[in-house]
């Protein structure tokens, strides 16, 4: 490692045609970034920007409008324009920018275009079909896509795995009840089970089907076992699925009426006052479909508010209209505020005070689904979205508390009271293994990922290093000691999950660069000796994975192919994470860090921010990725601020 503290400043020419040394350039970049971020704050005090995902989210809104006979032709045209804009030259739609063809996104986009009346002989449609045939065809699609195909009468319902609505009747002590599922699965599966119980088939207009997508290889689309019933959990559930479907053919279903009634009550109870369901597109659209097939009137306030909630997820752009999978105002606001604090802004700056007051107004003060497994705790956390009080999460709560611990509100008593309440809730959510999950506690029954419905592999919400690292970061900031029982337990959890090469896997950000940053930051915050060999291995891993241009990047494919860990085009957000991980490890004087800082300084845009096309957020590893449009704005500022503080302290 090279010490650069004593090196002479390099002279860099800036856009004003004057010369600045490195320190002046650093200050200039921080000030410019800070001013840009301040300019993006809303009147109410929060920050939020687009949460971009894949084309299925928008395509499924078109499906929904047709299923429910609520087609708005003007809106549909804008949605179609967006889908066509996102189609690539090879005819496909990917999961993330630069990624390979995603068969589900491509099939669902094609279906949406055809349903909307786009002629199948259009060049875009021909290329889409070619991409579908070249990438596995209908047979390679996921369960959700097959369910839509069944709802449009393109395949028989028997192809789809059973989702018996009777699961709602299973008691909480039963090993596979709905509260053993992750929050997002629960919020989606319950209403979807109502829809599937009706086995609806939409009467497609002439010429709007997609039979041209089927080949001889798509004859057997169902799930088939690869061994005897007891040879694996997967095979057991496939045989069980066949049994459930067999009995489902009989007209006598003794528990169906009671199950439908209870499931509908559950969905209604889980609708926010503002109309939202779990804050995510699948739960929202499936819940409204459940209302539709259960005969709830379009004039019912539940339906009206639910549709208004969906409308709030829409973004109109020049290239068309898209539907977001989710919105992230609390997440964006907390990180933006912390980045501003790191930039050296006064901690009682009006922008920070306004952000803090808005955040405090959004604190969750009622019991949610987490209460089922954690009945002794009192509510007090925060959610990710504007309206999602039944599903506060540990990651947002920790990030918000880090900010509230820093900001100097005039009414400090109010802040202290609500913060104490939140810390108490957060501590109660520690899992038995020592870590923290996102939304649930002790949600780790791995056999649930073996059911045929769970081909996305995300039926669970186990504790992860990245969330746990952020919580540990908070605990260090608010005065917890290294020998506290909960602290020792989470440190053990983090150390046990370190990869052999020194990195840590990241659940909610791409990927090892993200997980390693939060692990190191949490450990440094709590006072861990950062000269220990296991920390040094992570530093060496970061050094080894720096790109030639001085930045860091990692492809989303690293979830599928671990040999790609830490490899990819340099991005502003991932470079910032790597830099903050190195700085937390005491490496601010390392030449590697200096080069990373130079990367950010060189690529700052005129308005003060950075630009990246890559998706660096993770929804479900391997299956769903996110581009948070705020990441390129606030993470580089956070890294530059932390670097400046470290080298000038």
Secondary-structure topology with pairs:
Elements: E1 12-13, E2 19-20, H1 22-39, E3 51-52, H2 56-67, H3 73-86, H4 103-115, H5 123-134, H6 143-151, H7 183-198, H8 233-248, H9 256-269, H10 281-293, H11 301-312, E4 314-317, E5 320-323, H12 329-342, H13 350-361, H14 394-406, H15 412-428, H16 465-477, H17 485-496, H18 512-525, H19 533-544, H20 572-584, H21 591-603, E6 617-620, E7 624-628, H22 631-648
Antiparallel strand pairs: 1-2, 3-7, 4-5, 6-7
Specify the structural class.
mainly alpha
CATH architecture of the largest domain: Alpha/alpha barrel
Detail the poorly predicted runs. Answer: 1-17
CATH class of the largest domain: Mainly Alpha
Principal-axes geometry comes out as globular
| Beta-strand content estimate | under 5%
Main sheet summary: 3 strands, antiparallel
Structural domain count? 2
């Amino acid at each position: 490692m090279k010490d650069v503290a004593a090196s002479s400043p390099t002279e860099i020419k800036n856009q004003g045609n004057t010369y600045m040394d490195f320190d002046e350039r650093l200050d200039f970049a921080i000030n410019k970034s800070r001013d840009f971020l301040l300019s993006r704050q809303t009147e109410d005090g929060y920050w939020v920007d687009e949460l971009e995902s894949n084309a299925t989210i928008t395509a499924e809104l078109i499906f929904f409008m047709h299923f429910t006979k609520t087609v708005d032709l003007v809106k549909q045209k804008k949605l179609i324009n967006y889908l066509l804009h996102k189609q690539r030259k090879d005819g496909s739609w990917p999961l993330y920018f630069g990624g390979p063809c995603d068969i589900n996104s491509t099939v669902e986009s094609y279906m949406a275009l055809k349903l909307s009346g786009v002629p199948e002989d259009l060049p875009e449609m021909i290329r889409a079909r070619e991409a579908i045939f070249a990438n596995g065809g209908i047979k390679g699609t996921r369960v959700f896509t097959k369910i839509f195909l069944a709802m449009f009468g393109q395949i028989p319902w028997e192809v789809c795995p059973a989702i018996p609505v009777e699961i709602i009747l299973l008691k909480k002590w039963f090993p596979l009840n709905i509260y053993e599922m992750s929050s997002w699965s629960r919020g989606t599966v319950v209403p979807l089970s109502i829809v599937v119980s009706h086995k609806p088939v939409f009467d497609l207009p002439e010429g709007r089907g997609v039979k041209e997508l089927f080949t001889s290889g798509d004859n057997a689309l169902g799930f088939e076992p690869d061994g005897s019933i007891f040879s694996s959990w997967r095979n057991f559930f496939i045989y069980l699925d066949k049994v459930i479907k067999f009995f489902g053919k009989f007209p006598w279903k003794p528990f169906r009426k009671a199950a439908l009634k209870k499931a509908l009550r559950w969905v209604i109870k889980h609708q926010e006052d503002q109309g939202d369901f779990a804050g995510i597109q699948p739960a929202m659209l499936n819940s409204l479909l459940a209302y539709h097939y259960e005969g709830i009137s379009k004039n019912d306030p539940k339906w009206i508010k639910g549709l208004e909630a969906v409308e709030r997820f829409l973004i109109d752009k020049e290239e068309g209209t898209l539907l977001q999978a989710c919105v992230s105002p609390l997440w964006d606001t907390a990180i933006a505020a912390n980045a501003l604090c790191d930039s050296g802004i006064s901690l009682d700056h009006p922008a920070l005070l306004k952000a803090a007051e808005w955040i405090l107004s959004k604190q969750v003060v009622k019991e949610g689904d987490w209460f089922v497994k954690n009945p002794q705790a009192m509510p007090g956390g925060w959610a990710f979205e504007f309206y999602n009080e039944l599903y506060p999460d540990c990651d947002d709560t920790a990030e918000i508390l880090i900010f509230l611990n820093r900001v100097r509100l005039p009414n400090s008593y109010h802040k202290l009271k609500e913060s104490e309440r939140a810390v108490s809730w957060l501590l109660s959510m520690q899992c038995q293994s020592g870590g923290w999950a996102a939304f649930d506690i002790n949600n780790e029954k791995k056999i649930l990922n073996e059911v045929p419905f769970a081909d996305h592999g995300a039926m669970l919400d186990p504790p992860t290093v990245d969330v746990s690292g952020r919580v540990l970061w908070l605990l260090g900031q608010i005065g917890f000691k290294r020998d506290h029982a909960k602290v020792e337990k989470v440190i053990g959890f983090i150390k046990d999950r370190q990869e052999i090469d020194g990195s840590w896997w990241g659940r909610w950000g791409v990927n090892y660069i993200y997980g390693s940053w939060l692990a190191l930051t949490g450990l440094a915050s709590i006072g861990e000796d950062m000269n220990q060999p296991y920390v040094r291995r992570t530093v060496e891993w970061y050094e080894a994975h720096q790109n030639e241009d001085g930045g860091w990047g990692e492809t989303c494919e690293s979830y599928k192919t671990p040999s790609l860990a830490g490899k990819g085009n340099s991005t502003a957000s991932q470079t910032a994470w790597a830099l903050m991980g190195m700085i937390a490890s005491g490496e601010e004087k390392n030449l590697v860090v200096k080069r990373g800082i130079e990367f950010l300084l060189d690529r700052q845009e005129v308005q003060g921010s950075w630009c990246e096309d890559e998706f660096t957020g993770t929804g479900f590893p391997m299956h769903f990725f996110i581009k948070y449009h705020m990441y390129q704005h606030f993470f580089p500022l956070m890294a530059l601020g932390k670097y400046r503080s470290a080298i000038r302290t």
